[in-house]
């Protein structure tokens, strides 16, 4: 038998020995921790959502999956910051559409919906996708049709507030928007647009990346919950970004981007400029950082730094939680990023802040 490739190549590896050891570490899962201390962490200071999830974990009346679903649903019902749930972030036609995802770290099952229309409970619909299909993601009108089959009511997601937002946007010549390299000039005019002759690699096309996002216009509540049985779950819910092009989907319903959980390691959730962040799978990067031995804070920092290398003006943040109940966060483009935590250490919801990576 021929000698193995790695034995044959050993004399060429030199300093790569440490890298190989790291790969072995990444491929060798640690033991699953039982008897965990329950904890919930979520992006932003959406404390009502945290409190609902913590109530479920503290009383032992549900699993980590239950906590994430109910916690994020509270944010949908309360229309957190206008960035979650009905009546917020209308698209260019004035319609509010919803994205959501839920992931079970024990089974690695995922359910998600994107561009969901006329159904308010996006997180609950996402869980139905996880529990009643072998699919991962349903989108658009077909996602709505599925929701109606599952017994969810069809409702109008428009409110007086979202109508006002849309009307003001139209009066402002459709500013801001997400078009580049089209005519008429999207910085001064509404559409309909046609492709222009400008190169898509010009400064004008890249300068808008991240420019339409802020603390009141971003993707997601992202939540991670760990229950006393050692089960971990994660989820996201959002109405996307205001004035988006119809059909746009951000990072929230994408596993590894909006959120990611692994029963051997922990979980992470991202928020901010979903168009940019989904290109880097920051939640997955943070989890893999923890798998390699980084603290949750350092793992979140690494995920954020990777995005910032390419898009130094982007706005976003990552929260991370390991199976020991240790947590951390990192951000970019925000003065101080607030996130919410509840655990047995305090038995109340606390809002933490972290300063951002430069």
Automatic annotation (TrEMBL):
InterPro entries, per the entry: Ntn_hydrolases_N, Peptidase_T2
Catalytic residues in the record: 220 (nucleophile)
Keywords of the record: Autocatalytic cleavage, Hydrolase, Membrane, Protease, Transmembrane, Transmembrane helix
Enzyme Commission number(s) from the entry: 3.5.1.26
Catalytic activity field: N(4)-(beta-N-acetyl-D-glucosaminyl)-L-asparagine + H2O = N-acetyl-beta-D-glucosaminylamine + L-aspartate + H(+)
MF (Gene Ontology): N4-(beta-N-acetylglucosaminyl)-L-asparaginase activity; peptidase activity
Domain of life: Eukaryota
GO biological process, one term: proteolysis
This protein's GO CC annotations: lysosome
TM segment ranges: 12-33
Residues bound to substrate: 248-251, 271-274
Chain intervals with Polar residues compositional bias: 190-200
Positions of region (Disordered): 190-213
Keyword Membrane annotated: yes
Entries under Pfam families matching the protein: Asparaginase_2 (PF01112)
Residue(s) at site: Cleavage: 219-220
Functional description taken from the UniProt entry: Cleaves the GlcNAc-Asn bond which joins oligosaccharides to the peptide of asparagine-linked glycoproteins.
Assigned protein family: Belongs to the Ntn-hydrolase family.
Protein name from the UniProt record: N(4)-(beta-N-acetylglucosaminyl)-L-asparaginase
């Amino acid at each position: 038998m021929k000698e193995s490739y790695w034995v044959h190549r050993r004399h060429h590896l030199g300093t790569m020995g440490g890298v190989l050891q790291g790969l072995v570490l990444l491929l060798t899962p640690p033991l699953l921790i039982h008897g965990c201390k329950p904890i919930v962490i979520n992006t932003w200071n959406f404390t009502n959502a945290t409190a609902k999830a913590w109530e479920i974990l503290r009383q032992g009346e549900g699993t980590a999956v239950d906590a994430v679903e109910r916690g994020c649903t509270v944010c949908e019902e309360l229309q957190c910051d206008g960035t979650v749930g009905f009546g917020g972030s209308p698209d260019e036609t004035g319609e509010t559409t919803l994205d959501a995802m839920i992931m079970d770290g024990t089974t690695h099952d995922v359910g998600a919906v994107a561009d969901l229309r006329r159904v308010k409970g996006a997180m609950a619909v996402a869980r139905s996708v996880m529990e009643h299909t072998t699919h991962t993601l349903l989108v658009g009108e077909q996602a709505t049709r599925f929701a109606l089959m599952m017994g969810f009511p069809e409702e109008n997601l428009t409110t007086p507030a979202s109508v006002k937002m849309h009307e003001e946007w139209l009066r402002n010549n459709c500013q801001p928007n997400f078009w580049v390299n089209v005519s008429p000039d999207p910085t001064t005019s509404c559409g309909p647009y046609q492709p222009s002759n400008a190169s898509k690699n010009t400064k004008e096309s890249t300068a808008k990346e991240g420019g339409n996002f802020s603390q009141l216009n971003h993707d997601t509540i992202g939540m991670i919950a760990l229950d006393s049985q050692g089960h971990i779950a994660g989820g996201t819910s959002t109405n996307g970004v205001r004035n988006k092009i119809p059909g746009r989907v951000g990072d929230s319903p994408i596993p590894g981007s909006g959120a990611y959980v692994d029963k051997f390691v922990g979980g992470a959730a991202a928020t901010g400029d979903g168009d940019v962040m989904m290109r880097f799978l920051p939640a997955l990067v943070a989890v893999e950082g923890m798998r390699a031995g980084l603290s949750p804070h350092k793992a979140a920092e690494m995920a954020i730094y990777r995005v910032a290398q390419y898009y130094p003006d982007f706005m976003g943040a990552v929260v991370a939680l390991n199976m020991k109940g240790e947590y951390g966060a990192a951000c970019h483009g925000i003065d101080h990023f607030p996130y919410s935590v509840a655990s047995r250490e305090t038995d109340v919801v606390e809002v933490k802040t972290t300063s951002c990576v430069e």
